[in-house]
Amino acid sequence: MLNLLETTSDDLKQWLRERGQQPYRAAQIRQWVFQQRAASFDAMTNLSKRLRGELAEAFTLGTSTIVSHHRAGDGTEKLLLEFPGGGQIECVLLRDGTRRSICISSQVGCAMGCVFCASGLDGVERNLTSAEIVEQMLQLARLLPAEERLSHIVVMGMGEPLANVDHLLTALEQASAADGLGISPRRITISTVGLPPAMQRLAAENPRYNLAVSLHAPNDELRNELVPVNAKIGLQPIIAAADEYFEASGRQLTFEYVLLGGINDHPEHAHELVRLLRRRSALLNVIPYNPVAGLPYRTPSDESQREFRKILQEGGLNVHFRQRKGDEISAACGQLRRVKPTVVQTIATRSSQT
Ligand code: SAH
């Protein structure tokens, strides 16, 4: 069976032609899938019953089951999805003013092994298919009222997106296509641990999206401890590949820095960061650590956060301290798979969607 979520408009037209159908039907079908967010072919009432039947025989519109659905007081909603191919992943809808941002996963688990992160504790199980990546977008869009649209996408859920770059890019085509979700590439951000060959490939072939690089340390010694894959890569090649991406895209870079109390939050680390990043068109996104049950890391005190920020700002860096959203439902990072939240309104459990 084919999956409509990873079928291009041209392929769909071809399929229609082979069945004696008009190719303009492809636009109607895509309108149902991406704008109306239809979860079944039955809903596509401007198509003949016969065509709907043929579509249902040939294509699926998604394969996931919603294992759980949580909503926090600030409007953040989080879905835990299970795919028949194996594994559970999570994805999040964040509401901020008129923004409707989603955070999506790229793999089941993660192989990068960042020591403070919940997603990689059991390693990586598999890459998500592009349809599975698109399906997260649609499942989250279906949580919105009909008149609202998704406005932003960050690929910051479970997994390392640049370790699954082909499927990711196919999925982001559907997200950004005018007859897909119609989200401008300028509002789509790929977050990476920093894999230079894939960053260089993106710069050469597809520099349309925003790139965020997860730094977490200003020198190799500390980064090798926090982000074990760094030992084989090193900071300098990562910064050089990020610069290359900036050259190709013209898009301001983001560097992410998860602030871990007593580990990477010393004033000297802030000074080193200034030396590493100054004179770049970059935003430094500092994320106070969101504690993970069972891991020995903690959020720094407000005072040490303030001091850290002051040094960065005095050093001339463009700094943003990220507001945590969805904390109470563990939506800030890959935790729902592990910790079943308690302080939440659980909306649905185990409802099959398609
Ligand atoms: N693998 C990619 C994308 C997924 S992680 C990457 O490394 O960028 C997205 C971001 O969330 C990364 O910066 C990651 O380090 C951060 N993160 C992971 N666990 C966290 C936690 N417990 N608290 C705060 N940020 C976390």
Structure, briefly:
This protein is an alpha/beta fold and 354 residues long. Helices cover 32% and strands 22% of the residues.
Structure description:
Helix 1 (9-18) crosses helix 2, helix 6 (196-205) packs parallel to helix 9 and helix 10 runs parallel beside helix 11 (302-314). The radius of gyration is 21 Å and the shape is elongated. The model is unreliable at 339-354 (pLDDT under 50). The chain has eleven helices and 15 strands. The chain folds into two domains: 2-60, DNA polymerase, domain 1, CATH 1.10.150; 65-353, TIM Barrel (Alpha-Beta Barrel), CATH 3.20.20.70. An eleven-stranded mixed sheet has the order 14-13-12-11-10-9-6-5-4-3-15. The chain has a two-stranded parallel ribbon with strand order 1-2. With 354 residues, the protein is of the alpha/beta class. S-adenosyl-L-homocysteine is lined by residues 112, 114, 116-117, 156, 160, 191-193, 214, 256, 258, 287, 289-290, 292, 332-333. S-adenosyl-L-homocysteine binds next to strand 10 and strand 12.
